[in-house]
């Protein structure tokens, strides 16, 4: 599904204009980014049926350059992960 398709589907189901849905999605993205980048990082709930976005710490590790085969150090970093709800997990299985 593309972003345009998502906007169209939400607009149709919620009986809203596409421009309104686009503004809501843009505002959601801004709020989510601010919350996840905060200190300390927060969580962004997406509803009981869906799950939430959380920040996780990724440990430093060794990797390999596929072109040269050279071993490189990949530094530790933060990443955003989606944690699905129990309802979604059960619906998918």
Task: From the structure above, extract its key features.
41% helix; alpha+beta; two-stranded antiparallel sheet; DNA binding; HU Protein, Chain A; 2 domains; late protein; single chain; 93 residues; DNA replication; 28% strand; 3-stranded antiparallel beta sheet; Hist_DNA-bd; elongated
Judged by helices, strands and strand pairing, the structural class is: alpha+beta
What is the succession of H and E elements?
Answer: HHEEEEEH
- Low-pLDDT stretches are none
Query: Main β-sheet, in a few words?
Result: 3 strands, antiparallel
Number of strands: 5
Side by side, the strands of the main sheet go 1-2-5
- The tally of domains stands at 2
CA radius of gyration:
18 Å
CATH class designation of the largest domain: Few Secondary Structures
At the third CATH level, what is the topology name of the largest domain? HU Protein, Chain A
Count of separate DSSP helical elements:
3
- The level of helicity is 40-55%
**CATH-level-4 superfamily name of the largest domain:** IHF-like DNA-binding proteins
Identify the overall geometry.
Answer: elongated
Query: Which percent band covers the strand fraction?
Result: 25-35%
| Proper CATH architecture of the largest domain | Irregular
Task: Give the termini distance in whole angstroms.
Answer: 21 Å
Report the average pLDDT across residues.
95
């Amino acid at each position: 599904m593309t972003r345009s398709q998502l906007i169209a589907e939400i607009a149709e189901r919620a009986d809203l204009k596409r421009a309104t849905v686009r503004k809501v999605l843009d505002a959601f993205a801004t709020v989510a980014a601010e919350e996840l980048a905060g200190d300390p990082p927060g969580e962004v709930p997406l509803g009981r049926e869906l799950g939430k976005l959380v920040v996780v710490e990724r440990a430093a590790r060794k990797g390999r350059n596929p072109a040269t085969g050279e071993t490189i150090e990949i530094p530790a970093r933060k990443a955003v992960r989606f944690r699905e709800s129990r309802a979604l997990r059960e619906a998918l299985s």
